[in-house]
Amino acid sequence: MKKIINKLRPYLNPFKNHIFWNIFYNVLYAFFGTISYVTLIPMMNVLFDKTKKVTIEPIYTDVLHLKDYLENLMYYKVTSFSDSGTPQKALLLVVSIVILTFLLKNLAGYLASYHMMHLRNGVMAKLRGVMYEKIISLPISFYSEKRKGDVMARMLGDVGEVQNSFFMLLELIVKEPLTIIFSIIMMFTFSWKLTLFVFLFIPISGLIISKIGKSLKSQSLRAQNEGGYMISLVEETLSGLKVVKSYNAEDTFINKFRESINRLLNLSNKIGKKNNLAGPLSEVMGIITIGILLWYGGSLVHAEKLADGSPALEGTVFLAFMGLAYNILTPAKAISKASYAVKNGLAAADRVFEVLEQENTVDSKENALVKNTFEDKVAIENINFRYGNENVLKNFSIEVPKGKTVALVGQSGSGKSTIANLLTRFYDVQEGSIKIDGTDIKDWNIHSLRGLMGLVTQDSILFNDTIKNNILIGKPNATDEEIIEALKIANAYEFVKDLEDGIETNIGDAGGKLSGGQKQRLSIARAVLKNPPIMILDEATSALDTESEKLVQVALENMMQNRTSIVIAHRLSTIQKADTIIVMQKGEIVEQGTHANLLAKDGMYAKLVMMQSFE
Known about the structure:
It is built from 22 helices and ten strands. By secondary structure, the protein is an alpha/beta fold. A hairpin with a 4-residue loop joins strand 1 and strand 2.
């Protein structure tokens, strides 16, 4: 608990003002809540004509005797009204006092809730904002191990659970305990014997309730993890719906989802049983306490007499005492319920902070190089890289001079796309170095580094937005004229101008309203608008049909003019004009040279060319 509070402290600090006022008004709520039951005594005394007679107006002396002064002042007023033949005014006075105390209690409760609302909503918004920044800054490698759906569940569901459950803690440690403390103090002033009876049962009920709640946190954590898996399954199903349907795999995925639902159902039922038991259990313990109080308190009223013959406990005082006892049981019940909710909140907070505390292994160093120009060359020097245990790249070295085009070719799994991942620092090399203008890219500011590069991947990654907003990602302040010029260079304006809304057309989820070739040309237009000095093309045409490939190839050639380019190619027809072609096999360079030189060698490149037909 303490550890989580310490972790939450930076998010609570901006809302210190609301925390202070929430505590202040909760103190008032507890105080007026107790006083409201005490004010019932003079009202009942007036009703039953048992009012203490005070004929001399009391004089205020000091704060230590304030209670006696106020009590005698009220009885003096009541006595005056009764003696003057207007008992209705006496009743109106005491009823008004009762109403006033209940009004002040509820006003304080409202103001406490008002500040708690700002605190809860503010912390939730801050947590979600920081969490989004974190998940967007974490390296790609993090998401190759974590399910995206589980991360979404943590950001949306678990942060909400922290908001709903964890902030009950403030109520738990201020409002409810103070209500109990104030009530007990007042009860002691009425009857210490009767108050001891209450003390006998509160620890017993607390012990029983805490035993039930011990396993709740671990079950809540398992339920939240299962919820994350379920969201992840939905996300994966929707992403791969074409595959699911084409392979008639609906039943397989439905069964997976049902199994997850059943696991979550069983966990939720177990948690629910314990949560639901908290209320009835505390109420049963409470009514037992009330029953004993009624029996013993009744004997004090009727059986026990003081030396002067008056009852050991006045009936009206006993009724007020019972109200105060109820005033203890209600917050005690709330504490038991809240303690379960806090356990849920603790489990959720653990999952949230697991992401927030994740180390970002790919980030800018302190005083990293900030530079927006490319002057000399890209040098990859003796790098080794592995995703798991086996090296994907082995002692790999190439140089890409400014203004030149270098193409990487080879069979699938030869490590071509890994080069693109390393150049953009999606991953970091384990051995060796990658340098731009003589400086290791690990010493560059990561935003400066990526600012020099444009990336066009095999999968056209587009967002559910307009064509304009998709292209603006690379240069947010570009004009419509610049966007249209980029579309023309990318050979995309020919179809965009025919759309009803032109560049303002929404392209649907992942660009689903467009063909593969159209999506790829928009990706190229996005890179063209950014206008980076280094272009990385990762199999940009391999997923296209022949006609689309030709259009995209023209767009790529337009884009690569007077630019440093690293082209990762599957279709060899697209890289014949490259200055250098590097042939890779199992992470190593086996051949390099121009298209003509490599054909003349009649080696692996020539074999790859033979396997592909050129038009």
